Amino acid sequence: MFDIDGVLADVRHRLHHLHRRPKRWDAFFGNAPADPVLHDGLAMVLTAADDGLTVVYSTGRPERCRSDTVDWLARQGFPAAPLHMRRERDHRPARVTKLAVARSLRSDGGVEYLVDDDPAVVTTLREDGFVVIHATWMGTADSTTDHPDEEQQLLFGLQEHGDT
User: Fold this and answer.
1) What is the pLDDT of residues 84-136, one digit of tens each?
2) CB–CB of 134/2 below 8 Å?
3) What is the spatial distance between Cα 164 and Cα 127, in angstroms, rounded to a whole number?
4) pLDDT at 139
5) Against a cut of 0.90, is the pTM above it?
6) What's the chain's Rg over C-alpha atoms?
7) Has residue 144 got a pLDDT over 60?
8) What are phi and psi of 16, to 5 degrees?
9) 3-state secondary structure of 120
């Protein structure tokens, strides 16, 4: 199971929409089709598919972003796969929603491993017995901002409090 934002998609160019109050979530998600691909994430997905694993995507993006997300994945060369998205008006923290998806997949036949960049999600999934790869490569990709780690931490904090 692969997260999208921060694992497959470089979201740093749109994090500025979250610096003000109220948060500009529509602009944040509206700019997602312009996300650069994170090549480490793409390589990991393609390797999983080549190894015969069933690829699944799970994202904190709301359901209204499904079409843009599916189109972006296809344009970037990701294999078609089930996509689990946040229901509209679901403001639970990402660690809660991702755990629910992972548990559902585990009961349906198993989960080899999960890949996420959010430390709270990684910790929660590991505590529940999942093998989790903590994706840190967005912070090492060519920076599009002066303070990429600070901006990524802002997004994690918003996800933890269910603001997305």
Assistant:
1) 999 988 889 999 999 999 999 999 988 999 999 999 999 999 999 999 999 99
2) no
3) 23
4) 82
5) no
6) 15
7) no
8) -60, -20
9) helix
| CATH T-level topology, domain 12-160 | Rossmann fold (3.40.50)
* Burial zone of 108 (CB within 10 Å; 0-12 exposed, 13-18 middle, 19+ buried): exposed
Q: What is the 3-state secondary structure (H, E, C) of 81-105?
A: CCEEEECCCCCCCHHHHHHHHHHHH
Block residue for tokens 């490569």: 137
The one-letter amino acid code at 158 reads: L
Alpha carbon distance 105, 1 (integer Å): 9
**What is the secondary structure of 139-160 as a DSSP string?**
GGSPPSSS-HHHHHHHHHHHHH
pLDDT > 70 in the chain, percent: 85
Q: Angle at CA 9, nearest 5°, toward 121 and 160?
A: 25
How far apart CA 79 and CA 50 sit, in angstroms, is 10
Residue 75 to residue 63: CA distance in whole angstroms: 19
Cα(138)–Cα(141) distance, integer angstroms: 5
User: Per the structure block, which two tokens stand in for 141?
Assistant: 């990709």
